[in-house]
Structures are given as C-alpha cells and as structure tokens.
Amino acid sequence: MKKLALLSAVAALGLAASAQAAVVTNILRAAGVYDPTTGTLISSTPAGIANEEASGQPRTYRFNIFTKWDGMTADQSFGNMAFDVTFGPGITRVPVNTGATRANYQSNNPAMGASDADGNSLGNMYLKNGDQGLSTSDLLGVVVSIDNSNINATFDSSGNAIPDPRLALARGAELRVGAVDVTWDGTTKTYVTLSNQQYAILNVPAKQFGPTAKPADDTDPLVNPDPQTQVLNFVPVPEPMSMGLVALGGMAVVARRRRA
User: Which tens digit of pLDDT belongs to each residue from 189-200?
Assistant: First the structure.
C-alpha cells in the first residue's frame, strides 16, 4: 500500500480558498485489510497491508478519511465539507455488511460532551456526518457539517461556560471524519480517491458559513497522486525459495566464470 505524506503539492487543494485565508487538505489513508468473504481483519499495520497488496489476492481495504484546515483566523472554524468516494477499475463497493466490513460510509461522530445554557445536551460533534446522496448503492454525496446555530455557546453539566470543542476541529491537525471499505481484485493497478470536494469555513461571531470553495480534484491519480488518493498496485514479492534459486543461479554463473 502506498503511504502518502503531506506534499508541497497540496497547495493545489487550498489555492481556491485563499480568499478565506485557509488551506484545506483532505487525506485518504489505508487503515486495514480484510478477507472479502468473511469480513475478518487480516492486518491493520502498514507492513501487513503492504504484504496483502503484494499477494495478488482479492482483499477488502478500509480507508480512513482525514481533513486538515490550516491558516484559519481566531474568528474562523471548521464549518462543513462534502465529497464523493470514487475509484478506478478492479475496485467494487462492499455490497452488504460482512463481518467487520461495512457497505456504507462509516462516520466518526463522537459526543460533544457539552450542553446549552438550559442544560440540554448538544449531542454529537456534527449535525450531519453521513452519505446524503440519493442512491444507496454508491459512496457519493458524503456531507460533514457542524450546527452553526449554537457554536461557541457551550456549557458543562453545572452550567459553567466551557470552550466549544468544535472550534478546534481540524485546526492545524488531521481530523478523522469517517471511513469506507472497498474490495480490490488484487491485480489491477487502480486507485481510490475523494472527488467533487467542497467545504465552507464558519464565521464564528456571525454564526454563518462562508462561501463554498471547491478544491481541485486529483486529475492524475495513478501517476502523481494527491493526498486524497491511494494507489493499489500488485507488485509480487519473490517467494523465499525463488529468491534462493536466484542466488544459486548467480553462484553457478560465478563458478563457471572462474573455471573459464
């Protein structure tokens, strides 16, 4: 599995938002590999995932989705974002929940741990975090959005004002918003990417979302992948016996040359 670091090229994702004084980077990262028949976890380590990629066998892969927002002012915060999860040939969506694998987008929406001035729980961190698309057979139209109506008006169980945890979301650090599972045939060089990306920064004092920005999608995912893309490529690793035979063959060549 190709591990992608944050590249200088990610500026392409944020230039469109320069008017909002922020650079938004969306990141797709492999988190685990599963048996596609049983949904059983095979490995969640980078080395284990790489070994399975090199096996040439069909596998289901889980990709975590992160976002990172840099350059926001004190009066700005994460507002909302939207994207599609699309993929190339050789990859299919998991059709039904099987074992630990899931057919649909998996949201990461923890409890906020805060209440309003009347003591009512404000619920989860996001007002929306899910696939809002019309079809139930794709991974298109994922929306992640906070509730702008009650931003920066958060209290603890005793009625004391506390910092709103949403103001720190994705601010200069990667934030995992969700995950998707897809199945790869094991041999076709292909990719998974986030496309049709959109986001809006929240003006905290005004409690209003700013204009929607649309970062550039990855136009060349197989050759020069951006951080929101993961490439799957079957590169077989020689078996230990095969490697031994290669070594023996080399020794034989050396022996013949010495005799000559």
Answer: 999 999 999 999
